[in-house]
Structure formats: C-alpha cells, structure tokens
Amino acid sequence: MAKQKVAMLTAGGLAPCLSSAVGGLIERYSDVAPEIELIAYRSGYQGLLLSDHVSITQQMREKAGLLHRYGGSPIGNSRVKLTNAADCVKRGLVKEGQNPLAVAADRLAQDGVTILHTIGGDDTNTTAADLAAYLGANGYNLTVVGLPKTVDNDVVPIRQSLGAWTAAEVGANFFDNVSNEQSAAPKTLIVHEVMGRHSGWLTAATARAYIQKSSRNEYVEGLMMDEKLKTIDGLYLPEMAFDLQAEAARLRKVMETNGFVSLFVSEGACLDAIVAEREAAGETIKRDAFGHVKIDTINVGNWFSKQFAALLGAERSMVQKSGYFARSAPANQDDLRLIQGMVDLAVESALNKVSGVTGHDEAQKGKLRTIEFPRIKGGKHFDLSTKWFGEVMETIGQKYKPA
User: Fold this and answer.
1) Which tens digit of pLDDT belongs to each residue from 32-79?
2) Considering the chain, what percentage of its residues have pLDDT values greater than 90?
3) Are strands 356-361 and 143-148 parallel, antiparallel or unpaired?
4) Close Cβ partners of 224 (under 8 Å, ≥ 6 residues apart)
C-alpha cells in the first residue's frame, strides 16, 4: 500500500471554526493513523501554488487541542480561484501560460500528498471540486475532502455550515453593547450591519440570539435603561422586499415614541439595487477573483442609514458592523460539537478514498455524509417561512414579504 501523506488548507474569509477544524484534523489523524505525515499549506491555495507549507511536528500534535480556544486560522487564508488563470498570473502565483490547476496538481504530486483537506465556504469547495475533477481526469491518485465553513450558512445542500452559530451568538453580544449608544443622544438611529452577501440567515439568527439574550435582562423601572432600549425595530435581508416609505412611516412612530430606532441589516440587503444605482452613475464597482462584488466597498449599512435618517427625523445616526468581530471569534460549544462530527467523518472518508464535502445533506433528511462535489453550490437563500424567523419578526412587529 502506498504511503499516505495528508495536507490541509483553509481559504476564503474567516469563520469561528477554522482554528478548531485544523486542530481537530490533527488530533483525529494522530488518534487513528499517527503514522501518517501531516502538512499544512500556508494562506490557502496561494500556499499550494507556491509550495509554501509547514510540517506538523510531534509537538504540534501534542498541543493541537489548544487550537480549539482561538479564532482566525493558524495556517492563514487567501482568496484564490484556480480556474482564474489571469488573476493567478497577476498575483504572481503562476507564470504566464501556466494552468493553475495543473500547477496545483503537480505541486501536490511533488509534495507526495495523497489526501487534501480544504476548509472553506462555497468558493473554497467549488475550487476544491475543480481541482478534484482535474486530478481525476489526469490520473492523479489523490482524495480531496472539504469541510464547509461560512458564517452566512449559505452552502447548498448543507443544513448547517461550521462557524455560523458562533457568529450569530457573538454578533448578538456585540450589539448588546452597541445598543447602549441609544442613550448617548436623543433621536439616535443605529444600523447594525451583519455579514451575509446572498443569505440573510446570519442577520436573522443574530437578531434571534439578541432577542433571547435581552429577554433575560432585569431593569430598574422608570429609568432609560429598560426593555425599549434593547429592542430591534427593523430587520432587512436579501430575501425580503420592503416599501421604503411605508417602513419609514412605521419607524418614525417608533422614533417619536421611544426616542431611538435600532435596525439589523444584512450586508447583502438591497445590494443589487445599490450596485445598479452606482454603476448607472458611472462608478466602477470592484470585484474579486470569483466575480463577486467587493462588498466592503459598497457599505450597505451606510446606504440604509442615509435612506432612513432623514425620513425618521434622526438627529444622530451611526452604522456599526459586527462582521469582523464575529467571524474572528473562537468556536462556541455548539460549533465545537458540529466540527468534531464533520472532522471525524472527513478523516474516515479520506482514508476510504471518498472525495466530497462533509455536511448534513438536506436532500437526504439531514444525514451527515460526504456530499459529492458537483452538488456543492453557494448562495443558498434563507427560508423566510422558517418558524423561528416568523417569531423574530412578530417580536419586532414588522410585516415582511419575499423579494
């Protein structure tokens, strides 16, 4: 039997699971196949193209459990699309005329890798799918097993991606402090922008976690620090349509009654309309290697703030973004359990030469399995008919309809 060698990489944006997933893979291989050599490519697919990797030493194996305590990625991330040769050339990752997929495959072969674990979102795993297809078509003996990471929870057909539960909890904690700004000045409008390009799941889940957290509060009656200060007055997702004037009229009444308004907004809410508006004005919108609009240059929260501030008669308005704070957190207990199950399956599948992405398959009644790469897609929309979402919107007092 050929000697096995395992490589791993993390890619895309951060999520509260990367450090723990890397630690979990190291621990699991050390338990079930301690003789197998482990390496990690630095900075995702960039490290693979440049053959920049670190060997996992015995000392690292013994202390791998410490990685569960931290956020970020202990092996670094990057956004690289192996089928975008022009971008790879521009960034100095391959030479003109080279096929990045071929370079990556050859590098894996030269490094003696027989198993590759990719930890990332839909872009990472669709890139892994491209690589796996190339490897299979060109006779390379390599198994590729991905783990699904995204705070957006928007990977098809996976029920729950790693890190999303933690991001919602941490985002709620973030806003618990920010909401106190409503007491800093009369008629304050706070817009809480939450990550989520195509899916409003994280914004909705963050609102739910915040409402649950606030419901346990006790207050000194008669003072401003009360239940009203901790409310959410509006919530806007990419999947929702809304009438700006009607919402402004509703929220103006809230402002007049309470003296402040708090909104939760997904960074992808109204994104297409905002991009179209700016492009029509002659602006060139920046996009990444995957063709996605660089969402941090759009500032959706600021757009909402400008739209509503004047209509509500706000004397002070502010936009607070929990995204980087939330996605950089260490995994919570719920995610740690999810990570362990997916890591154990990923190692089992890799040793049995089964390629794909581990996850609870929505097309198979939520069964945890290694899902075939061709079925992995991004941009899964949040289902507005979800029961708990209806309860959240009822608490807020906002009517809504699908976009």
Assistant:
1) 999 999 999 999 999 999 999 999 999 999 999 999 999 999 999 999
2) 83
3) parallel
4) 183
Query: 69-106 burial, b if ≥16 CB within 10 A, otherwise e?
Result: ebbbbbbbbbbbbbbbbebbeeeebbeeeeebbebbbe
State how far the Cα of 161 lies from the Cα of 147, in Å rounded to an integer: 8
User: Looking at residues 276-295, what average pLDDT do you find?
Assistant: 77
Residue 233: partners with Cβ closer than 8 Å, 6 or more residues away: 251, 254, 261, 262, 263, 396, 397, 398
C-alpha–C-alpha distance, residues 283 and 316, integer Å: 28
Please give the single-letter amino acid code of residue 274.
I
Distance CA 197, CA 200 (A): 8
Burial 222-255 (b: 16+ CB within 10 A, else e): eeeeeeebbbbbbbbbbbbebeeeebbebbbebb
Q: Which residue, among 210, 199, 225, 218, has the nearest Cα to 263 in the 3D structure?
A: 210
Q: Is the pLDDT at 139 greater than 70, yes or no?
A: yes
Cβ atoms of 122 and 377 closer than 8 Å: yes
User: Exactly one of 122, 152, 154, 361 is catalytic; which is it?
Assistant: 152
Number of other CB atoms surrounding residue 10 within 10 Å:
31
What are the residues facing 6 on neighbouring strands?
A: 38, 115
Residue 152: active-site member: yes
